[in-house]
């Protein structure tokens, strides 16, 4: 019995150490907002971990799921610009900055019958499409930033979809992206930024494996805001 107890205690200690190590690794690998993004974030109101840009009375709420290990504030620059165009942007936060750990987080932002669009960057876009596929009431559209839906997030019917990519993205699997078009409506709008990269859809510096952008981050932020705003303006 004593040997069993020592063995059990040993297993628990190993698990605790592994858990702590995992948490420390995730924190060290997290992508934090650039100084410019941190400045833009001061325009937001933070409620229950969600960054809100724009007025609560706006005609449409834009729900944003960040990419894996990316701090929500890293998307503040284009979010602030979209809000100035008359929309409310809600950037959702997740445990350990991983949308996969709480894919239905948008439920705390979107109220019953409230018109909304939802999207995300990279892994965030995958999780956002899964939410959209199951919560169609009030859904006006879905957008992807260097992302695509998997089979669980397949979007059917006449839901408007916007897919934005960048030519120098070294993180997005373009083969998988092209294959995933079968999970999108045939009239999906596709736009690509020449010279942009994966990290440029946010503002948090370099990302491992990414291509080197030949346009500035400010340029890519403006492009994202412009593409989103133009698309949002077409929605009814």
UniProtKB/TrEMBL annotation:
UniProt xrefs under Pfam families: Abhydrolase_5 (PF12695)
Region (Disordered): 186-212
InterPro entries cross-referenced by the UniProt entry: AB_hydrolase_5 (IPR029059), AB_hydrolase_fold (IPR029058)
Annotated coiled-coil segments of the chain: none
Lineage: Bacteria, Bacillati, Bacillota, Bacilli, Lactobacillales
Record domain Alpha/beta hydrolase fold-5: where: 62-221
Record GO terms (molecular function): hydrolase activity
Name of the protein described by the UniProt record: Alpha/beta hydrolase fold-5 domain-containing protein
Top-level taxon of origin: Bacteria
